[in-house]
UniProtKB/TrEMBL annotation:
UniProt key word DNA-binding: yes
Annotated GO biological process: DNA restriction-modification system
SUPFAM superfamilies associated with the record: DNA methylase specificity domain
InterPro entries recorded: Restrct_endonuc_typeI_TRD, Restrct_endonuc_typeI_TRD_sf, Type-I_RS_S_subunit
Organism: Massilimicrobiota timonensis
Family the entry assigns: Belongs to the type-I restriction system S methylase family.
Name of the protein in its database record: Type I restriction modification DNA specificity domain-containing protein
Domain Type I restriction modification DNA specificity: 2-161
Pfam families to which the protein is assigned, alphabetical: Methylase_S (PF01420)
Length: 185
């Protein structure tokens, strides 16, 4: 059995409202979302009006509306963090969040490929609402979602390890060039 995304989750489109505020807010912007479930940073901004509908919670799924579109599952989030314009917040209602993130990750790439001829490819509400989500047992959804999430975490760890290895080799080479022959062993 399959259900439409609109039947298994809440879909919220975030629209920026630029105003000057007395208070700075912790904001996630589209530029902060990277592929493979990476959130690069947060912005502290006093020019964006926030409301409770754009507050990001653990288990939410954030999608960049404008291409390139990435799906980011929120497994940890600081209190009072908000999503800004051109982000979409998906909150699972009757399916497991990580499982839904996996399905969306797979389906969003299909949608963005179909929009490739547009000047600025962007995902619309109808595109999202009509995504079909296979309804499996909760146990199976949980297993699939956990496997997807763990595979992304392993990928991030391997990437970080490669970066550290490269830094180490650069340091050794620099020491060999600057330290002379006595350090070669």
């Amino acid at each position: 059995m399959k259900k439409k995304l609109k039947d298994v989750a809440k879909i919220k489109f975030c629209l920026s409202q630029k105003v000057i505020s007395d208070e700075k807010h912790k904001i996630i912007t589209p530029i902060n979302l990277l592929e493979n479930n990476v959130i690069d940073n947060f912005v502290f901004d006093d020019r964006v009006r926030v409301n409770k509908d754009t507050k990001v919670h653990k288990g939410d799924i954030l999608i960049k509306r404008v291409s390139p579109s990435f799906v980011n599952y929120i497994d940890e989030i600081d209190e009072d963090t908000y999503a800004s314009g051109n982000l979409i917040i998906i909150s699972a209602v009757s399916v497991e969040s990580k499982y839904l993130a996996y399905i969306l990750n797979k389906e969003i790439s299909k949608i963005t490929q179909s929009l490739s001829g547009a000047k600025i490819p962007s995902i619309g509400r109808n595109d999202l609402e009509e995504i079909e989500v296979p309804i499996l047992s909760i146990k199976r959804q949980k297993a699939i979602g956990d496997l997807w999430h763990k595979s992304i975490e392993v990928y991030k760890l391997k990437t970080r390890l490669n970066e550290l290895e490269f830094i180490k080799v650069k340091g050794i080479l620099s020491e060999l060039v600057n330290g002379g022959e006595q350090n070669v062993n």
